[in-house]
Amino acid sequence: MNPTSDNSQTNGTAAQPMIEAIGLSKFYGSFAASRDVSFTINQGEVAAFLGPNGAGKSTTMKLLTGYLAPSEGTARIAGYNMATDRIQGARRLGYLPENGPLYADMTPRSLLTFFGKIRQLSGVELDRRMEAVIETCNLDSVIGKPISKLSKGFRQRVGMAQALLHDPDVLILDEPTAGLDPNQIREVRKMIRELGKSKTILLSTHILQEVEAMCNRVVFINEGRLVFDGTPAQLGEQQANLDERFHELTTTA
Q1: Neighbours of 198 (CB within 10 A)
Q2: Disulfide-capable partner of 82 in 75, 133, 201, 251 (CB 3.0 to 4.6 Å)?
Q3: What residues does 34 pair with on adjacent strands?
């Protein structure tokens, strides 16, 4: 099953494709971590990348970001081929990997300064962007503390701030609420909903409540293959239906 979502803007003009997977495959010998995955996320969409553990979500996200080279197919961010124009694509992209690497001996402020300089931000522009992401991610209370001393929730916020620092148009977030307590999950979901008002977002999850809480689009993969592409309503409007559909798509695909 592969229904497509409405890809038009409310004014009737075509929406700009911001994340494109075109026949993406990644093989490790005879094992296919991702096989012939194709979908498009348009400007302004917040899409859940859904599937069970081991379905190929993280691999596909790494292919989309250019972190991994595909065995077959093409990944594009804001129109840029991530195999041939990765630097240009990376300027439009913010990426939060699962358990993203943070330098434990740094403070959030020193880490953001470091990443800002890598992103060629400096002076007033760097100060302005740091102030913006510190406010967005609510880091004021820990900005000068060593990252090693921060809770999982605050470390996740620091990772999010790093992804947002250069004000990208596209965000790819791999399990952004993994390992967080209920209060921390609530805060991260609120942040993502706010970011979704101005950015295109693809976030991976295997938690069905994430779909209802944050997303207007669902891309579902199982065993490395695309098995559903549509709206949350098409997947199942009620939680019980979502559970049932998840089971169906992961046992019959």
Answers
A1: 9
A2: 75
A3: 26
Q: Is residue 79's pLDDT more than 50? A: yes
Distance CA 240, CA 69 (A): 38
Helix (H, G, I), strand (E, B) or coil at 118: helix
Interatomic CA distance for residues 223 and 90, integer angstroms: 28
Angle at 239 between CA 43 and CA 188, to 5 degrees: 50
Cβ burial, residue 16 (10 Å; 0-12/13-18/19+): middle
What is the DSSP code (8-state) at residue 2? -
Distance CA 7, CA 128 (A): 34
Whole-prediction pTM: 0.87
**How many C-beta atoms surround the C-beta of residue 123 within 10 A?**
7
Q: Which residue has the tokens 């595909």?
A: 70
In the chain the first and final C-alpha atoms are separated, in Å, by 10
Quote the pLDDT of residue 228.
92
∠ at Cα 68 (65, 73), nearest 5°? 85
Q: Where in the chain is the domain with CATH 3.40.50.300?
A: 1-92+169-253
Distance of CA 99 to the CA centre of its chain: 13
Q: Extract the tokens encoding 238.
A: 């009620």
